[in-house]
Amino acid sequence: MDMSQPIGVTPLDTQANGPVGQPIDRVDGPLKVTGRATYAYESREMANPGYGFVVTATIAKGRIRDIDTAAAERMPGVVHVLTHRNVPAQGEKKEQVGPLLTDTEIRHWGQPVALVVAESFEEARAAAAVVRVAYDEQKGAYVLADALAEARKPEKARTPPDSSLGDFEAGFAAAPVRIDARYTTPVQSHAMMEPHATLAAWEGDRVTLITANQMPNRGQDALASVFKLPKDNVRLISRFIGGGFGGKLQPQADAILAALASKNLNGRPVKIALTRQQVFHVTTRRSDTVQRVRLGAGRDGKLTAIAHESWSDTSPGDSFFETSANVTRSLYAAPNRLTAHRLANLNLPMASSMRAPGEAVGMLAFECAMDELAEALNLDPIELRIRNEPAQDPEKHVPFSTRQLVPCLREGARLFGWDRRNPKPGATRDGQWLVGTGVSAAARLNPLQPAKARVRLDPDGTLTARMAMTDIGTGTYTILSQIAAEMLGVKVSQVRMILGDTADPMSSGSGGSFGAASSGSALYMACESLRGQLLAKTDLEPKNAVFTGGRIVSGNRSAALRDLIGAGLEAEGEIKPGENEKKFSQYSYGAHFAEVGVDADTGEIRLRRMLGVFTGGRILNPKTARSQAIGGMVFGVGAALMEAVEVDSRYGTFVNHDLAEYHVPVHADLPEIDAVFLPELDDKANPLKSKGLGELGICGAGAAVANAVYHATGIRIRDYPLTLDKILEGFTAKETGQRRA
Predict the structure, then answer these.
(1) CB of 472 closer than 8 Å to CB of 241
(2) Residue 477 has pLDDT above 70, yes or no
(3) What is the mean pLDDT of residues 531-550?
(4) Which InterPro entries match (predicted)?
(5) Is 729 a catalytic residue?
(6) 3-state secondary structure of 627
(7) In terms of CB atoms within 10 Å, which end of the chain has fewer, N or C?
(8) Structural domain of residue 513, as residue ranges?
């Protein structure tokens, strides 16, 4: 199906109380809690694997002068040491996935320089420790703030890096109220629970990788380029993934090196798991950013000029940039507009997508600037946002498919008790605690990706669905089972969902908030085709037919599925994005509300409560959707208050490269958090009339927390995260200013 027209009434609209929309438990839950859900490193599908351990560079820029592997090769259990001297020939880089160990150049600290394969993990690790590498070190560049002048306009981009409308400079200069603020966000790590891991083996000129990968088909294409193979000769299997958040969008060094070592070992399987410390340097990260936001408004609060400029960085030779300003293009109305992105290449690990790339850090800046503007106008920050609600997409000049940002703000304000808020910063106390509340809008692009699915209905009533989709812990197995069950009128327990194998029909994979909509729509189309085959075996009226309880019901007549299946029926379905993505501006929306306490002496910040109100089209499963939204909000809390990879500006290393020192929110940091969904169907989005939710929860969440900290203290911090030292500096500055006054 080509999504070029709005969708009319569908089977999901006509069956009340069907499986879709019910808060059922995860169908894969029992497998996970009993240990029967096997992750990549746990797989035993390939016999007698060798265990690999990666040797990484201890400089950030330079060349390998010499590498001595003799001692490692003599160690017990060692079967192979892979270096640039014996690595198999490789092809070209594709989708940020490139050949490894092909030369002696070092581009960042932690770059793989060798791989030791042994009979056990412990033997491989011990031998890796005695590989000796001599370097000719060169001076590198590690600090984004020092490289702004050399940053350039990105050349390769899925969306234009810059946009402009009207005359921003003139509009800004003429505005009676202006905000010009600089914000910075740090390097962040995906910090998923499951480290990157792969088990790879060759059979002739074909290679199979059981690997932790969010998008197997995309990875298949990229690895085919690296291994110089036809795409169909590369098979990826990713049945269960222990979190990704974008860090497993592309195959990483574990996958490439495992396959290369297996090739040198005549096809023997090789298994690699990166250590937690290696994950930080060997895989990807979210770039740090420097952002400048300028807002011009009339005394009535109507925006007349918006500018959002962002600088980010990635490794030498890479072109990925953080699209921090993209969401600004559609969020609020203003006649004069400017957005721009600039990219610096630093000797740091490659930057790539991390949960809500662009919006997550862009809205940390932009939605705080909106708060600053509200204060300058002496206007309630919710009212400021409502006054600047656009009638259509302000830059594309097309209608919104659906847009309920204002209802989210108003309903959230009602539920949160916003009307009880004292608008004066620093005026509310609870004993030792300064108390503040903050708000932010949430918006996330709602894309659709090509996907296919195959379904089979067997005589025993089992409905089996296959596609190369993945479940990274989000509940994909569950919502797809619900869709299939409702479309064919069978129980969810009768659905067998087989995911994560490129041998099955291609799918979008998990990421970008398009996974459920894309794979679910393909499954919907396959089930629709199967419904047609079943109806063709009856004389029932198709127009009014309802599939329910293992039967097809039309009017006062019905037929049992078991009487129509025969030896079994199969069907395939496909979804493709169409013109609707150009005809309509498609976003999911929401509003975040946060209350914090700040200790008046120590500056400690504690989140007291948080609420998100969202719209995401049809909610396929309220339980998993709420889990996704709250998880995103927790990401936002981390970004606001604690998450930062500290870059050693002398050596280009990440100092806090483990979960002991890279702080993410834990249960003790998180009080009552709730997520509420407003009713919505989007018939321009896809046949499910749903929208993406996986990343919406993080968008703007951190800004609501930061705005609450300002409201509590009167201290505006624009350098994330908002750590104790910055709060204490603000206290000191206020006290000094008061004494001088």
Answers:
(1) yes
(2) yes
(3) 95
(4) Ald_Oxase/Xan_DH_a/b, Ald_Oxase/Xan_DH_a/b_sf, Ald_Oxase/xanthine_DH-like, AldOxase/xan_DH_MoCoBD1, AldOxase/xan_DH_MoCoBD2, AldOxase/xan_DH_Mopterin-bd_sf
(5) no
(6) helix
(7) C
(8) 28-37+448-576
